[in-house]
Each structure stands twice: as structure tokens, then as C-alpha cells.
Amino acid sequence: MARRAALAASAAAAMATATLITTGAAQAAPATLAVQQVPNVGVTVSTSNGVTDAFAARLAATPAAAGSTQLSIRPENAKACSTNLANSRAAITWRNMTTNKSDDIVFPVCAAGKPSAGVVVPTGAGRITFTTTIIDRTQQTFTVSPGSGSFRR
Asked: What is the model's pTM?
């Protein structure tokens, strides 16, 4: 009987320790929010060769300060930021379906050959819907199918 009590106490202590460790890790690095979406799809063209490349990119959403969300674009092809999306910008229209607040934002898709950190927007809590479009500063990259979807903050 004493052995069972000792085992139960050990198990409870282990669970409490695991809970503390898990809670500490979750606070150190906020998890990316689950985003339900259709990715943004487009092409890159040149005047001499027509369509030269294609891309697909998804929206990434991460909790930021209270009531804010960091939004960024993540190309499916790791090389896209050093090739066809290097000079591209993302335009996002978002709406909080709970508060009916909405806004449009524009930011670079890539920085130094890698996906940019994006921008922090005051989305508030609730279900957020969005539409994304990617355009190139040199007018060589075009969205064929805008990205769209939602996430819960």
C-alpha cells in the first residue's frame, strides 16, 4: 500500500514538472496559428520568354502583443525569395468577423533572399478572414489566383 502511494506521488510530481516545462516553453516561443487557406498562386513573366516561373505562397500568422497578430508570406519553394519573389510585395486585406474591424496592409514578401518577418497588425481576438495578393515591383510577377482563408486569434 505504501509502495502504491509512493508511485502515485512520483507520477503526480512528474506530471507537475512536465506541465511547468511545457508551459515555460510555450511562453518562450509563441506557436504559429493554424491557418485554413487556399494559397496564393502566380507566375513570373519576361517580355522575351513569356512565362518563366510560377509560385505558390501561404500566409503565416503568429500571435504577437495582446490583440495583435504577426502576418507574413511563406513561399512554397525555398528558392523563390532569391529568384522570382525577390522584389515582390504582399497585399493583404483582413477582417475580424467578431468585431467587424478590417484593414489592408502591404509589405515585402522577402528580405535578403529569405521570407521577410512580415508585419504586426491589430487584428484583435476572434475569427480573422483574409485575401492575399502578390505583385512585383518590376511588374514581372503576377497573382493568378489570390490566396484566401481564415484563422482564429
From this structure: 0.76
Task: Using alpha carbons, list the distances in angstroms from residue 115 to 58, 76, 83, 95.
Answer: 11, 11, 12, 24
The span from the CA of 50 to the CA of 107, in Å, is 27
Q: Is 97 left (phi over 0), alpha (psi -120 to 50) or beta?
A: alpha
For 36, the 3-state DSSP assignment is strand
Percent of the chain scoring above 70 in pLDDT = 79
User: How many C-beta atoms lie closer than 10 Å to residue 120's C-beta?
Assistant: 14
Each residue of 25-66: pLDDT tens digit? 444 556 889 999 999 999 888 778 888 889 999 999 999 988
CATH fold of 35-152, please?
A: Immunoglobulin-like (2.60.40)
Measured CA to CA, the distance from residue 76 to residue 57 in angstroms comes to 5
